[in-house]
Amino acid sequence: MTLGRYRISARPRALADGRFAAFVSIASGTGSASTDRVMRFTEDFATHEAAARYAMAQGIDWVRETARPAIRTN
Fold first, then answer.
1. Which neighbouring-strand residues pair with 20?
2. How many separate domains does the chain show?
């Protein structure tokens, strides 16, 4: 999914106990100016889909918070 200049990708991973960990990748830029932030969350999930939904929601929230214009106070 692309949101503004950010590319958000859920990357759930299977855990040894059969549950799933939620990871999200948030990338921006191209070439040598590219960055990729990967976040892992402490919650675990019963299904791959649940972990992916959670990761995407967290990634979207992070982008919206980061992209929000700074509020100036005088």
1. 14, 45
2. 1
